[in-house]
TrEMBL record:
This is hydroxymethylpyrimidine kinase. The keyword Kinase applies. The lineage of its organism: Bacteria, Pseudomonadati, Pseudomonadota, Gammaproteobacteria, Pseudomonadales. It comes from the Bacteria. GO terms for biological process: thiamine biosynthetic process; thiamine diphosphate biosynthetic process. Keywords: Kinase, Transferase. PANTHER family: HYDROXYMETHYLPYRIMIDINE_PHOSPHOMETHYLPYRIMIDINE KINASE THI20-RELATED, PHOSPHOMETHYLPYRIMIDINE KINASE.
Length: 264
């Protein structure tokens, strides 16, 4: 006996990570944990492990459009989560997809670097996201190094980057954890000047896929109808727990445990 799906559907436009730490697998697991259904459309294929990325290939735009259009024609998309795009052409492809989803929240995770530091697209991709995608996005979730690239402020603080970026986007979450502070500070900025600060205990080690996990969890909370600041807090709390319980299956970074043991 079949029944209609009561879980909100989130269309994920992200790259594939064969190590399973980041990319679409992170999206799927994090969205499952929020009680959502992930509809994953592949934007790029990568060669990477838990240490770093060594190569990537962006898919042809027609293939990405075909995947997204098949989902949109069949499923009630409640939110769209962006991960790795990898090219300026893919930025334009996302804009074409979003024209078919008016009013649907777009959560933009500007994936420009892998956890090991390897590039996942030229800086010009980030600038195209800033100029073209940020204006149609509900929120962007860069970490501080990504925010510095997007704001073109190599040594800028989170506040300085936000000031440069908020003319392009309504809400901006700049995540911390890339320094040596004892607490991680995450800052949510609104264009109207409102601001929320969230802090959490810094965990030892480094993690592969933490940004994907956070952005996907936030997408799920927004798809469920949660108010933005509350959704950000829920997503940050969930992500911290996945890092606390992370494991190191390979030679490199820890991978977040996004699902409970009985589901993993």
């Amino acid at each position: 006996m079949s029944a209609p799906c009561s879980r909100p559907v989130v269309l994920c436009l992200s790259g594939h990570d064969p190590s399973g730490g980041a990319g679409l697998q992170a999206d799927i697991e994090a969205l499952m944990a929020q009680g959502c259904h992930a509809a994953p459309a592949v934007t790029a294929l990568t060669v990477q492990d838990t240490v770093d990325v060594s190569d990537f290939r962006v898919l042809d735009r027609d293939w990405v459009l075909a995947q997204a259009n098949a989902v949109i024609a069949d499923l009630p998309v409640a939110a769209v989560k962006l991960g790795m795009l990898g090219s300026v052409e893919m930025v334009e492809t996302v804009l074409e997809i979003m024209q078919k989803l008016p009013g649907v929240p777009l959560i933009c995770d500007p994936v420009l670097r892998a956890g090991g530091g390897g590039a996942l697209g030229k800086d010009e991709v980030g600038y195209a996201m800033r100029e073209r995608l940020f204006p149609v996005s509900t929120i962007a979730t860069p970490n501080l190094p990504e925010a510095r690239i997007l704001a073109e402020l190599p040594n800028g603080s989170a506040d300085e980057c936000a000031e440069k970026l908020l003319p392009f986007i309504r809400h901006l979450l700049i995540t911390g954890g890339h320094g040596d502070e004892t607490e991680v500070h995450n800052r949510l900025y609104y264009r109207d000047g409102s601001r929320y600060d969230f802090s959490c205990q810094r965990l030892p080690g480094s993690y592969h896929g933490s940004g994907c996990t956070l952005a996907s969890a936030l997408s799920g909370r927004l798809a469920l109808g949660q108010e933005l600041a509350s959704a950000v807090k829920s997503a940050l709390d969930y992500t911290w727990r996945t890092l606390r319980d992370a494991e190191a299956p390979g030679r490199g970074q820890y991978i977040p445990r996004r699902l409970p043991l009985d589901l993993a």
